[in-house]
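A note from the maintainers: we've had questions about how concatenated examples are separated. There is no special marker in the raw files; a new sequence line simply starts the next protein. For clarity in this README we add a label.
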Amino acid sequence: VARMNKIVDDLLPLLHREILLTSARLRFLGERIRETLVQAVITLTKQAKKSEFEPLAVEIAFNGDRLPPWYLCHNGKEINLYGQIDRIDIAKTEEKIYLRVIDYKSGSASLKLSDIWYGLSLQLLAYLAVVQANMTNLIGKDGECAGALYFSLYQPYKRVNNPQPEGQTAAMAKLDGLILAQEHVFALMGGKDVVHASLRKDGSFTKNSRVVEKKEMLQLLQFVSKKIGELAAKVLAGDIEIKPYKKPDGRNACTFCPYVSVCCFDPAVGNHYRYLPSLSKEEVLEVIKAQGGR
């Protein structure tokens, strides 16, 4: 904590001509940044102590240097995707080597399979697909993808009217995403204190655990590859049709879109949203299974 405080103290004056020191509001923002980073370090340290996974690579780009661009082919069109993975972790057992992907998010983040199905949340599993395609480049041998997870840097405001009871601390933030539905992988991850999963007395995972079977994980990665290929092909074909989505809870693509003034989408003048029905995890996995992941 002391080291992180010193790092923040050294960096704040260097940001855009000391902008975070120029007013009370911006100084408060600087302190919020400090609190967020300190809490992130504490959480990362606790997770590292509980987990058998350790960083293999950080901020690793797939751009032709250490890892090649991600090559996709859709309807005869060749597509090379470039990007950067925040963190790849590794865990070794006597039988196997496991890799997982960690993606840092400044806000709260949760991976929903329905968003994957509709093409709204493809990035995290795309990173895992890149890792799967580059096992030899990364570790020199075959390995297995154990999961893809978000680490949220989001820190809610402290309770004032109802503060945390003395002697109690807030629960450690968990990694959110998908992991293999294997008890030993769950243990390597650090158990229920680190990931959103838990076991029943008979050793099976509870209904709300964010886990999938190995075959389902592979099918999801195949589906994500296909979906990205389809979207890229539409971009190359010049498809810019205005079709914003809307979910049953009212959330829609236009809420934070910076291009509203360009597309001029307005339901009041006859434009229509693309309605996305709610789908459960089981429904998504079933329909992807029926398609063979393709």
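[label: protein 2]
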Amino acid sequence: EGRVCVTGASGQAGRAVVSELLEHGYDIAATDLVASRADLEAGMLRADLTDYGQALGALEGAAALIHLANIPAPGLSTPAVTFNANVTMNFNVFHGAARLGLRRVVWASSETTLGVPFGVGPDEEQSMEADGPPPRYAPVDEDHYPVAGNTYALSKVVSETVAGQIATWSGIPFVALRFSNIMDAGDYRQFPSVWADAHERKWNVWGYVDARDVAVACRLALEAPGNAVAGSPSFVIAAADTVMNRSSSGLLDEVFPDVPLTREVGEFGSLLSIDRARHAIGYEPRHSWRDHLPAS
């Protein structure tokens, strides 16, 4: 079905996505601003997507786009740089994709659009613009939106709005994947350090997602039938469980006792709802830290 452009291809999610697509026989055009010499020699394009001409050049010849390039978290740059860079990159590739007539855009939004970090204020996290409220309910789903506590989250909320409008203009599906905290298998060794204190990872209701599941979610969003992703849908993408070795309902009772649990989640079930992604694109997380570490 034609070449797929992957932006942010040298990042944590990008490398996993490129690997997943190549394993499934896709023709890839990879691009990243921070492409290394080895990346360039392997065929990656170095492009600054805040420049519209370079964005168009990166997309030229592609039939579809998986857009992962952004400043990937709050606190890595000043608030203004984070917001301006992300929104500019996203507008440029979204508008360019519509202008060039790509058949689909899949892109990295964020769990932060849902209010993450929950229960955290500027005294604890410098990037916060105000005190982050607790979730209104759990498991937190796509309707817990928009709640932006910092300019990174705001950049993603604005970009979802832009994507929705350009999807309407163009008729191209723009699929936003609201990723939880992305982890590689090597990151799981850090998890036991937070088990003693339920408050330490409360900020995203103890969520995470394996980079390999991120990659599969991107491919599934690319391959889903048109009626499943018409317009500009957004899907929460998280692991099936939490980072903790104790019950999810117990964590909620201890840290957010006034937050109602709207359905049974299972003993260790995620408090970020992935039901819509399961239904619409067939997403089913296959990886867990429990495959790598003992839960004690």
